[in-house]
From TrEMBL, chain A:
This is Ferredoxin--NADP reductase. Binds 1 FAD per subunit. GO terms for molecular function: ferredoxin-NADP+ reductase activity; flavin adenine dinucleotide binding; NADP binding. Its EC number is 1.18.1.2.
UniProtKB/TrEMBL annotation, chain B:
GO terms for biological process: P450-containing electron transport chain. The keyword Iron applies. One of its GO terms (molecular function) is metal ion binding. SUPFAM superfamilies: 2Fe-2S ferredoxin-like (SSF54292). InterPro entries: 2Fe-2S_ferredoxin-like_sf, Adrenodoxin-like, Beta-grasp_dom_sf. The keyword Transcription regulation does not apply. It comes from Bizionia arctica. This is Ferredoxin. Keywords: 2Fe-2S, Iron, Iron-sulfur, Metal-binding.
């Protein structure tokens, strides 16, 4: 059981900033995210795109914003459960909550802050009618452990960065890598495209374009995929393989959170924005893109504000009746949970003779 | 209002909506769909309009002259599902006076 003060669901910009604000109040945080890395949409959908409305940053790449937020909250030592989706929540007699992920990891905290953006990212599955029956039997939508593919024959489909990058990576591990894409053109970073071209020329990657996987063959495990190729004349044939990895990106779904008894409106969680961004269940907050209230704007900067007020309210719940005054970091500095201290340099007082 | 254009949008349930869309708000078709709530929030415009998610894919039914497809839109459509000959991404279609009479159908959610 992982125990913490504030359990944050979603490790996007809002969740990461909440760690910092909580840390200033000496509250410890743990984050759960369905993606294998922190950053949420910023790292999953548009890492290389610039954002122009982060206060104090005329321009910052989404990826860099994530890195900065991780750096900013690092001394507060957040815990992470990545690559797991928060599945159920159970209120305990002492008022705390136990949140269990799809992998069975249990987390306990008196405060839960849902910073889940548009929901957890689920793989976009190609429209192949029997694909679901081969899931985990040769069909995988994520690559978690590349070693699994050692000396195996792998078919990857897709035309973006992940399809290119994994084809390159697996070309050294798998016995055979076939990359199938609907067009001759790829969308990925130029050097990845060049690298795949090189590997194709040297025979380390079989490239089949413009083509599509339209079927899967096998009994208990993938044996081959059916490919429809449309160059010159249309033809259909089988490509034998041990694994089929469709990489068509991810799309967010609100998912299990929708069944937690929270008030939902327009695929978002209703909160009290006049006070503290708490939901209809006391002790559960919702901050960032996942919440809604009159006048809501889905902006990162609004998520930061909401995270800050949420942490204050969490502090009050955890320390009822305790006198509290807001401290400025410039005045009080930052004491990390790791023993580090950051503070403004002292003014130098020196006489001029 | 002369700066508004008439467009017709068939939602994912097959219901047709006659819409007046403003040409002076720098809106694109995806944003028009969202502002009229013709598809549930969170199911359209997920990437915000960067041509990076295809959640605003639609089929163009009228012969309205549309802006040419840029590389990123073409690339995204080549990875999307339910793509047809007349598929476009709503976020890449700006509402201009030339869009008068445009008719589109929203592609299924995927």
């Amino acid at each position: 059981m992982i125990k913490t003060d504030i359990l944050i669901i979603g490790a996007g910009p809002t969740g990461l900033f909440a760690v910092f604000e909580a840390g200033l109040l000496k509250l410890k945080c743990h984050l759960i995210d369905a993606l294998p890395q922190a950053g949420g949409q910023c790292s999953e959908i548009y890492p290389k795109k610039p954002i122009y409305d982060i206060p104090g940053f005329p321009e910052i790449l989404a990826d860099d914003l994530t890195k900065n937020l991780l750096e900013q909250c690092k001394q507060f030592e957040p815990g992470f459960t990545l690559g797991e989706r928060a599945e159920t929540i159970e209120k305990q007699e002492d008022g705390s909550f136990i949140v269990t992920t799809n992998k069975g990891t249990k987390h306990q905290a008196p405060i839960v802050a849902i910073a889940g953006g548009l929901g957890s990212f689920e793989p976009r599955k190609p429209l192949i009618n029997n694909i679901e029956s081969f899931e985990d039997k040769g069909v995988e939508y994520f690559i978690k452990d590349p070693e699994k593919y050692r000396n195996k024959r792998v078919v990857i489909s897709g035309g973006g960065d992940s399809a290119l990058d994994w084809s390159i990576f697996l070309s050294d591990i798998a016995s055979e890598v076939t990359l199938i894409h609907r067009r001759n053109e790829f969308r990925g970073a130029l050097d990845s495209v060049d690298k795949v071209q090189e590997l194709k020329n040297s025979g380390k990657i079989n490239l089949i374009t413009p083509a599509e996987v339209i079927g899967i063959v096998g009994e208990h495990h993938v044996k081959a995929v059916v490919v429809s190729q449309a160059e010159h004349i249309e033809k259909e044939y089988e490509v034998e393989c041990d694994h089929f990895i469709p990489l068509f990106g991810l799309s967010p779904k609100l998912g299990p959170i929708a069944n937690w008894g929270l008030e939902i409106e327009k695929n978002a969680i209703k909160v009290n924005n006049a006070l503290d961004y708490q939901t209809n269940i006391p002790g559960i907050f919702a901050i960032g893109d996942v919440n809604t209230y009159p006048g809501k704007l889905k902006l990162i900067l609004c998520g930061f504000h909401e995270a800050t007020l949420m942490c204050q309210a969490a502090y009050q719940i955890l320390n009822p009746g305790k006198k509290y005054v807001l401290k400025y970091t410039t005045v009080s500095g930052i004491d990390g949970f790791d023993g580090s201290r950051k503070e403004a340099p002292k003014a130098v007082v020196k006489a001029i003779n | 209002m002369e700066q508004d254009v008439n467009i017709k949008i068939i939602d994912r349930n097959g219901v047709a909506h006659a819409i007046l869309a403003p040409t002076d708000m720098a809106m694109n078709l995806m944003e028009v769909v969202r502002s009229y709530e013709l598809a549930p929030e969170g199911t359209i415009g997920i990437c915000g309009g960067m041509a990076m998610c295809a959640s605003c894919q639609c089929y163009v039914l009228s012969d309205t002259k549309l802006p040419d497809m840029q590389d990123d839109e073409e690339a995204m459509l080549s990875e999307a599902f339910y793509v047809k000959e007349n598929s476009r991404l709503g976020c890449q279609i700006q509402i201009t006076p030339e869009m008068e009479g445009l008719e589109v159908e929203l592609a299924p959610e995927s």
